[in-house]
Design goal:
eight-stranded mixed beta sheet; six-stranded antiparallel beta sheet; alpha/beta; globular; 29 helices
Length: about 1000
């Protein structure tokens, strides 16, 4: 709790002054601000101008509430008493009892600015855990008389809380013996003895006061704990906060959420409400999430308005809105096929269930946060929701994409021919393939370029298959012999152009020009692969299989299956080591990737396989297996023109676009005057219902063509946006520092990038004390994983954990220390000034801390605490390591140093700008130097240009509402200012 004195005049920049004037003149208003616009400072200036009486409540995320607001208040000497309802004076989370005590103190505190997060505004009814006697429980003969007495008391009075039982037993003991009661610690020990003996258990019960309906005894949010009085025959909450500020107001967009309903209930008691947000609807994915476009994948952070992405129907759909969100808590949605997507808690999913499909109902649109809720046991709300059904099986599935429409492009080889060569072909020397089916030979022969023919090789005695060379048939053509290679072979030439010639079986891959081609090319390529290396199992519809030793080829086949509207899972078969072949020889085998998949079309052309394939009655859908928090990252949402609002992200996962459900946020401002008094009026005006088939029940609401523009116009008098166009800061110098890797390491990097496999030799001492070496292979399962692995390689470490072995989680190998050497050099040559180092991987942090501390440099990792921010700004930390995800909005580090080293550059523009902005921001007095370590010859060299290209996306934030004022409004503002001056002295005297 703090109290500031001696208010200093707040100096605002033009864009901030514009917002200030708007918020001063509109008691109930919202401000949509881009990154760095200074919403906290502007709002404090508004409060200094209007001088509101009574308590002020700031509803903000924890990090913003305990850092940004407090820092700005102290910096400007704002005359306001502050008190957090989230953390104590030492920045530690308040325990429940202490938090409830502070809620009660609101009624007696002098005028104060309080801080609370959205989750603590109101809470669901909580069940009470009570000590419950096990039916028929009989204490053993060794039980003490006290234990027997406590068990008898519990059996007589029924389930009780621990403290309730302790007090009851002590009072009974005093009444019986008329002496001193036993100590509470002794009674607790006897109760613990009952629990260990399984005579008593902890059981959860609904609140005994309200039976789970909700009351102050079972709901522990701020609104829940406020006193209630009967006014004019109605129970009314006594709301003590005349001024409310909602920072990140998009958290109130869900009209059915408890937090919105709680705030809407007390809204009439407010005299001023300020909503602050970056965008109105944060249904976002992380900026590095790949979004499918008709020509390939594109990171979410690079998607722009007017571009086209692919919808759930496989057709292109236009992007009509892009909404950067800044740093948000991220959740990982893992599906039944092992794929996953990282998104925000508010991101929407179109989901269905077995029961809904049985009733022919359309999918539901549910945010991530709602999917995580378990089934309610309350008598008042018996809701059947949650990830798992009563049998423990995943409840929700997401739609499977229809076959994706892609533009056609010319390819050098027939797709079926290429599929056969990739499946059972030899492309390391003379193009050839092996098959026991004459039908495949005929298909290949028909697909050969003009002038080419097949030449059969003599089969082995132990094999029924025949090998065929693809040759010109001319003397000296592709046949073995002393004059081979004189006649050109167009198949060999095409394989060279595609980068396939010379590849061994575990190095094969599908060229991009075939993966991103029309449906016929993709399907024929898949048929060539499956006719040679595929199989079909008939049951309730066919499940097909394909296996390969190449991780790149497995990733490409999954891409084909998903793009054709299929479902696929992958497993591994351990075939490493020498295996005995039918000929009696031993051959070294590699891990095999086995794909099991279903398709709406036959993946085979070969008659004996195609005839055993049966079409499923419906393609299997991905089921949601788990939802787990994975930290904080920058995010962005988009709006697409598709009627159902769906588009495709990573691994062809179907996800939902932003709905811009503004009604609840705007309702808090004007109680329904602009967008309608209720959600029904809002929907009837700007949305068209799509009904459940055969009913009059809306399944979803589709925005009308001009809805977004009309809604923005309707609320232009309530909200405005402003941009920072006149920020004056010291010079910013961006310096790329080249790091050179040894030639052998650079070659290993290139091989890894090409093969997706890297062999690492490990040396260790065995049980006999002998020096032993082993080879461990690190595999990048797909291009997305490869990108991360290449970033690790360039930085010096490489994670080597086996995804199938949880005990290896977090394991990594040190590849080189060239970046660490350069980092130490830059730190030592910084003139003794503090240095901020931005790292990406935990392994980098550990190696940096070890190396720098060993060199006598006091390096510390940022722990996100306000105490550490203060130590840094006081120049007490020589080197601080910071992860970009921790460098979110409002973190002020500009007073502690002016040098930043990017150890690993991110692809995320949000991470890059936000981290640079911790030093390069208002209040910095020295020129800022940003060193970017670039490992030459690696993808480090590409990232600066990627970041520069993304900058344009950040320049297109909301401009739908205007900040212009006419002369009449300006005159009214001047008249009101005179009245406010008369209240200044009274206001200040009551607060200081």
């Amino acid at each position: 709790m703090t109290t500031a004195t001696s208010p200093a005049p707040i100096s605002l920049m033009p864009h901030q002054q514009l917002l200030h004037d708007f918020l001063v003149d509109h008691p109930f208003a919202g401000a949509w601000l881009d990154i760095g616009a200074g919403k906290c400072l502007t709002t404090l200036a508004v409060l200094q101008t209007v001088r509101p009486l009574g308590h002020i409540l700031v509803i903000a995320p924890v990090a913003i509430a305990r850092s940004t607001w407090i820092d700005e208040i102290e910096k400007w000497g704002f005359p306001i008493r502050t008190k957090s309802l989230i953390v104590d004076e030492n920045d530690r989370k308040l325990p429940k009892a202490k938090r409830l005590q502070r809620f009660q103190e609101v009624a007696t505190d002098p005028p104060t600015m309080y801080f609370v997060n959205q989750e603590l505004l109101t809470q669901s009814p909580q069940e009470t855990k009570l000590l419950t006697p096990v039916p028929g429980a009989v204490p053993p003969p060794t039980a003490s008389p006290e234990v027997r007495a406590i068990l008898g008391l519990l059996q007589a009075q029924g389930p009780s809380g621990r403290e309730e039982l302790i007090d009851t037993y002590r009072s009974v003991t005093v009444a019986r013996a008329s002496g001193r009661p036993p100590a509470k610690t002794a009674v607790r020990a006897w109760i613990q003895e009952l629990l260990k003996s399984a005579l008593v258990t902890w059981e959860a019960y609904d609140c005994r006061t309200c039976s789970g309906a909700g009351c102050a005894q079972c709901r522990f949010g701020l609104v829940d704990q406020l006193p209630i009085q009967n006014i004019n025959g109605q129970n009314t909450i006594i709301w003590p906060f005349q001024t409310v500020i909602i920072d990140e107001s998009q958290g109130f967009k869900a009209r059915d959420s408890q937090r919105f309903q709680a705030l809407a209930t007390v809204r009439p008691a407010m005299n001023r409400l300020i909503e602050l947000t970056g965008t109105p609807a944060p249904n976002a994915l992380t900026l590095d999430s790949p979004i499918l476009t008709p020509t390939g994948w594109k990171p979410m952070g690079e998607v722009q308005i007017g571009e086209f992405v692919v919808g759930a129907d496989g057709q292109p759909t236009e992007v009509v809105g892009v909404w950067p969100q800044g740093d948000k808590p991220i959740f990982r949605i893992t599906f039944s096929d092992g794929t996953f997507v990282d998104c925000t808690e508010d991101h929407l999913w179109a989901v269905n269930s077995r029961s809904r499909r049985g009733k022919e109902l359309d999918p539901l649109v549910i945010p991530t946060g709602e999917l995580t809720k378990a089934r309610s046991r309350s008598r008042a709300t018996d809701l059947e929701i949650g990830l798992m059904d009563k049998n423990g099986a995943p409840r929700w599935t997401i739609p499977t994409v229809s076959s994706v429409r892609m533009p056609s492009q010319n390819v050098p080889l027939d797709p079926y021919l290429l599929g056969v060569l990739l499946g059972d072909g030899n492309i390391s020397h003379c193009p050839s393939f092996t098959t026991m089916d004459d039908e495949i030979r005929q298909y290949v022969e028909d697909a050969l370029p003009s002038g080419m023919r097949l030449s059969r090789k003599t089969p082995r005695k132990d094999s029924k298959a025949h090998a065929y060379y693809i040759t010109t048939g001319k003397h000296g053509g592709s046949m073995p012999g002393p004059r081979r290679g004189q006649a050109p072979n167009p198949v060999k030439k095409a394989l060279k152009e595609l980068g396939l010639y010379g590849r061994r079986s575990w190095e094969k891959f599908i060229p991009e020009s075939y993966m991103w081609n029309d449906e016929s090319v993709r399907l024929e390529l898949l048929r060539g692969l499956c006719d040679t290396d595929g199989s079909s199992k008939t049951g309730r519809g066919s499940t097909s299989q394909f296996s390969t030793s190449s991780p790149q080829l497995a990733a490409g086949v999954k891409h084909l299956i998903w793009s054709l509207g299929g479902y696929v899972t992958q497993r591994f078969e351990q075939r490493e080591g020498p295996q005995k072949m039918p000929s009696g020889q031993f051959s070294m085998m590699r891990r095999h990737y086995v794909l099991s998949f279903g398709l709406p079309v036959n993946p085979f052309r070969l008659t004996r396989k195609a005839s055993s394939w049966e079409k499923r009655w419906r393609v299997r859908e991905r089921a949601i297996r788990s939802i787990e928090p994975v930290g904080t990252a920058p995010a962005q949402c988009i709006t697409v023109a598709a009627e159902v609002g769906l588009f495709l992200t990573k691994d062809f996962v179907v996800t939902h676009n932003s709905l811009h459900d503004l009604w609840s946020q705007v309702y808090l401002l004007d109680q329904g005057r602009a967008l309608g008094e209720n959600i029904t009026a809002y929907r009837n005006r700007w949305f068209t219902p799509k009904m459940v088939p055969g009913t009059t029940t809306p399944a979803k609401w589709i925005p009308t063509p001009n809805a977004e523009a009309e809604i923005h116009q309707a609320i232009s008098h309530l909200v405005m946006s402003a941009r920072n166009t006149s920020l004056q800061l010291p010079a910013l110098s961006i310096q790329d520092v080249n790091v050179t890797l040894p030639p052998d390491l650079l070659q290993a990097y290139k091989d890894f990038k090409r093969d997706l496999v890297l062999d690492i030799v490990q040396t260790f001492t065995d049980d006999d004390g002998k020096l032993t070496q082993s080879v461990e292979s690190i595999v990048a399962a797909n291009q997305a994983v490869l990108t991360s692995k290449l970033m690790q390689f360039a930085s010096g470490t490489l994670y080597s954990a086996d995804p199938d072995d949880p005990t290896t989680k977090g394991r990594y190998e040190v590849i080189h220390d060239k970046k660490i050497e350069m980092t130490e050099y830059l730190v030592r040559n910084n003139g003794g000034d503090p240095v901020l180092i931005a790292y990406h991987f935990k392994s980098d942090k550990e190696q940096l801390l070890m190396r720098l501390r060993r060199a006598g440099i006091d390096a510390q990792a940022f722990d996100s605490s306000r105490h550490m921010v203060r130590r840094w700004n006081a120049k007490q930390i020589p080197v601080m390591l910071l992860h970009p995800a921790a460098a979110g909005h409002g973190l002020n580090l500009q007073h502690g140093g002016s040098t930043l080293i990017w150890y690993t550059l991110p692809f995320s523009l949000e991470h890059y700008l936000q981290t640079n902005g911790r030093l390069f921001r208002t209040g910095q007095t020295k020129p800022v130097t940003v060193h970017r370590l670039i490992a030459k010859g690696t993808q480090d060299e590409r990232i600066p240009s990627v970041l520069a290209g993304k900058q344009q996306v950040q320049d297109d934030l909301i401009e739908a509402v205007s900040g212009d004022f006419n002369a009449e409004q300006a005159l009214l503002a001047a008249l009101e200012a005179e009245i406010r001056e008369d209240l200044n002295d009274l206001w200040a005297s009551k607060r200081v």
